[in-house]
Design goal:
By secondary structure, this protein is mainly α. The protein is built from 10 helices and no strands.
Length: about 200
Amino acid sequence: MPRVTLEQAELNRDRIEHVSAQLFREMGIDRVSVIDLMKAAGLTHGGFYGHFKSKDELAAIACTRAFDLSRNKWHAQAAQSRSPTDAIEAIIGRYLSEENRDAPGKACPAAMLASDVARVDEDKPVRAAYRAGLDDLLDSLTALQPPSGPKTRRRRAIAQLSTMVGALLLARASGATALSGEILDAARKELLSDLKEKRP
């Protein structure tokens, strides 16, 4: 059997990370086995430990990758918007949409991984990765807030993200029902109404 080149090994690792970032959000960290991950990546199970020491290590890497993707989406949204407030409105609208609710593998890890991370031991590397990613998202959202003191801007960002995460989780748990739509709509309208009141 020919040896895998360094370039191919790097591509394989990247593929595993990409697939795991999606599957962990979609199904939960505990419900996805190493065999499942490698199969989804189109690779053999035996190759996993050539890339990662453990599933715990990969969970932390995948968590970081998922947060990076969310942050990059937010930054792209900000770059396309006429103002920071317009960017927040667009982020809220996209976050609290039925499309986002129905695509957990592509949704924000702050919501999709929250319950999984809350159940793991404090010393697991995914805990630190989650906290760092969450703080990074909050920094991005804080930077878009209307002018005010830094503590006020940070508090608003925390309230907005907490509302979005909570509403998305409740909507997902309610399935594609009228109640689910009501939850998304109510949270979106409240956040946008509050934002309009604070426009400079």
